[in-house]
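Objective 1b of the project was to move from sequence-level analysis to a structural picture of ligand recognition. The entry below was assembled by the postdoctoral researcher (A.K.) and checked by the PI before modelling. It contains the amino acid sequence of the target and the SMILES of the bound compound, NAP.
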Amino acid sequence: MKVLLLGSKGMLGQAIHDHFSEKGIEVITAARHDADYCFDFTDDEELKKCLFSVKPEIVINTAAIVDLGFCEEDAGTAYRVNARLPGILAELCREFNSYFIHISTDHYYISGGKTKHNEQERVFLVNEYARTKYIGEVLSLMYDNTLVLRTNIVGFRGTGKATFVEWAVKELEKGSRLNLFTDFYTSSIHTVDFARILLDLIRQHPVGILNLASSDVSSKKDFIISLSKALYNKEPDYVETSVKEISGPKRASSLGLDTGKAGSIVGYSMPGLDETIHSIVDEYHKRRNGNEL
Ligand SMILES: NC(=O)c1ccc[n+]([C@@H]2O[C@H](COP(=O)([O-])OP(=O)(O)OC[C@H]3O[C@@H](n4cnc5c(N)ncnc54)[C@H](OP(=O)(O)O)[C@@H]3O)[C@@H](O)[C@H]2O)c1
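Corresponding predicted holo structure:
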């Protein structure tokens, strides 16, 4: 199995690289820096040269602009990365007969609290991030050997702006008083679990849209309280707050995903909240011991 991994320095890209390499899979990396192929993915010529040179059996695209504020301010760049890039990749994969796996989002659902949304559920495009990611799905699926994975991922990146989990563990460590959202729901899966399940999915070669996430939907408040209990055996100091209080772009907030379809393909249930928290805590200790935090 020869895999070309785009976005290998990102939070999810790193986890996929580490797991697939550990399993003996040949992973060729592409990123703006520190990769086998270093270039900006909006450069079509470089992209084509990379695919022509690698001739991958599988292309995994984890590259995206995930900053909602940036997507609002520069919708053109967001379109080029989140929408046009997967469209170009799908056409290149058709040329090289590669299996295309494109990572999408859960940022599509605006009501229903803890509801689990399945792959057929109606989507709502409330901001430029959602709009550009959705167009990315549509363009990816113009090629019939494409798998689009909708997800909500949490984990460590080790570089750049702190991820949600990196922020949370740092604040919990300091004993800070946290503002915790009671009405922002996700089915967050740890990137390490995502990478493991992705490899099992690839062996079954599904195509179309699939939710790959935790089997539990939790509020950000419940998620952080569980993390605090697992790390420090106590509840954090917190005040309850609402996602409606956040300034900036409008957000979708009922992001739960129904993962029944993915579970039936791989033959086991997706990790629940407890398993996700334990997986994050394991990774936290590994990184701490390796001085990577
Ligand atoms: N994080 C979440 O909460 C979340 C939730 C749901 C879905 N997702 C989806 O999951 C996927 C992975 O997200 P992530 O959290 O791993 O994001 P991430 O850590 O920000 O990684 C994305 C990578 O894309 C790269 N990239 C962006 N524009 C590029 C360009 N023009 N050329 C080359 N590389 C470029 C970035 O490179 P630089 O470092 O050089 O900028 C970054 O390393 C994305 O499709 C995202 O939409 C994420």
